[in-house]
From TrEMBL, chain A:
<dbReference type="Pfam" id="PF05331">
    <property type="entry name" value="DUF742"/>
</dbReference>
<dbReference type="InterPro" id="IPR007995">
    <property type="entry name" value="DUF742"/>
</dbReference>
<protein>
    <submittedName>
        <fullName>DUF742 domain-containing protein</fullName>
    </submittedName>
</protein>
UniProtKB/TrEMBL annotation, chain B:
<dbReference type="Pfam" id="PF03029">
    <property type="entry name" value="ATP_bind_1"/>
</dbReference>
<keyword id="KW-0342">GTP-binding</keyword>
<dbReference type="InterPro" id="IPR052705">
    <property type="entry name" value="Gliding_Motility_GTPase"/>
</dbReference>
<keyword id="KW-0378">Hydrolase</keyword>
<comment type="similarity">
    <text>Belongs to the GPN-loop GTPase family.</text>
</comment>
<dbReference type="InterPro" id="IPR004130">
    <property type="entry name" value="Gpn"/>
</dbReference>
<dbReference type="InterPro" id="IPR027417">
    <property type="entry name" value="P-loop_NTPase"/>
</dbReference>
<protein>
    <submittedName>
        <fullName>ATP/GTP-binding protein</fullName>
    </submittedName>
</protein>
<keyword id="KW-0547">Nucleotide-binding</keyword>
Length: 119, 212
């Protein structure tokens, strides 16, 4: 990382490094799936890191990790690090997807069939 | 890499979802289906035709150690490649949301999105009959990972048309795996592909329940 301070203009790895504080966030992020739904607990607070404030702002209603990544133009790997901190700080909470161990689940599949029929 | 945001520190101008794209507060859980296939096979088209939101893109960066070594600094060069994945969304009901991810056929890209297939209901292998060979690998990988899938043959006007049982033979597909024709540009046709996958999964779920 450059000692002059953050390079916010760039889109390169340096920017991502700055946003995550250089962490890979390997601990908590394993519990976050691409389709884990994230919901903010409150409005963004002044002084929050810009990316985290943006997440809190767009997650006033449930939004998947993948959608947050797309709306922020940040890789999922970076978003999960930011989210881990936000969860630890009680700024947002997560609604996990249906756990793999429960699949295939007949009731779930039938619900999806009903939903698709209405398309 | 090409990041759209280049704002000053202090604000990140993510617009977020349009007001009509906002999920209800009751959205409790999501499931995913992965659309796999070679470049240009119609993944983005299929996702876009059934999605309730305009398809979104998420990007990951793949870093590879470069072949060359920087002579002056003695630092190994690294090359980065940005790989994009398109996805869309279908609200199944007030509580359940289905996400569709379109991912390239090459397995090395799948690892960029950790857990892409983990917990997925299943997959759709999109096949272009002009380039059948691309699909062999994909089908093999899905079988290895025990990801249930159906095969959808996209009908391009200049593509050779084979009877489906001939294609089944060419792709070495077990008789149990459904194979359907589709036009990814049509909402109903794409919906029917997803429906074929769900009917197949329904059969598997019933079989699993009866076996236990
Ligand atoms: N005729 C025909 N063209 C299609 C179909 N699906 C996709 N295409 C076209 O094929 C091109 C590549 O599709 P795209 O969805 O971008 O492929 P991807 O690389 O797999 O995401 C686009 O120009 C589509 O309009 C189809 O079912 N029939
Ligand atoms: Mg595409």
């Amino acid at each position: 990382m450059n000692s002059d301070g953050p390079h916010w203009d760039g889109g390169g790895p340096e920017r991502l490094y700055v946003i995550t504080g250089g962490r890979s966030g390997s601990s908590a992020k394993t519990t976050l799936d691409l389709v884990t739904l994230i919901v903010a607990r409150s409005a963004p607070r002044p002084g929050m890191q810009p990316e985290q404030a943006a997440i809190v702002r767009i997650c006033q209603r449930p939004l998947s990790v993948a959608e947050i990544s797309a709306h922020l133009s940040l890789p999922v790997s970076v978003v999960t690090v930011l989210l881990s901190d936000l969860i630890a700080d009680n700024r947002v909470f997560s609604r996990p997807p249906v756990p793999p161990a429960k699949l295939p689940d007949i009731a779930l599949i039938e619900a999806v069939i009903d939903g698709l029929q209405k398309l | 890499m090409d990041f759209r945001s280049s704002e000053s520190p202090g604000s990140v101008e993510a617009a977020g979802p349009r007001s009509e794209d906002v999920l209800p507060e009751t959205a409790a859980a999501a499931v995913k289906v992965v659309i796999v296939g070679g470049f240009g096979v119609g993944k983005t088209t299929l996702v876009g035709s059934v999605s309730e939101i305009r398809p979104l893109t998420t990007e990951e960066t793949m870093t590879q150690a470069g072949v060359g070594v920087d002579d002056t600094a003695g630092v190994e060069r690294k090359s980065t490649t940005t790989v994009a994945m398109d996805f869309g969304r279908i609200s199944i009901n007030d509580e359940l949301v289905l996400y569709l991810f379109g991912t390239p056929g090459q397995e090395r890209f799948w690892f960029l999105w950790r857990g892409l297939f983990e917990g997925a209901l299943g997959a759709v292998v999109l096949v272009d009959t002009r380039r059948l060979e691309v699909s062999f690998d994909v089908i093999g990988r899905l079988e290895e990972r025990s990801v249930p899938f159906v095969v959808a043959v996209n009908s391009f006007p200049d593509a050779p048309s084979y009877p489906l049982d001939e294609l089944r033979g060419a792709l070495d597909l077990p008789a149990s795996v459904p194979i359907v024709e589709c036009d990814a540009r049509l909402r109903t046709s794409s919906r029917d592909v997803l429906m074929a996958l769900m009917r197949y999964l329904q059969g598997l779920a019933v079989a699993t329940t009866e076996a236990s």
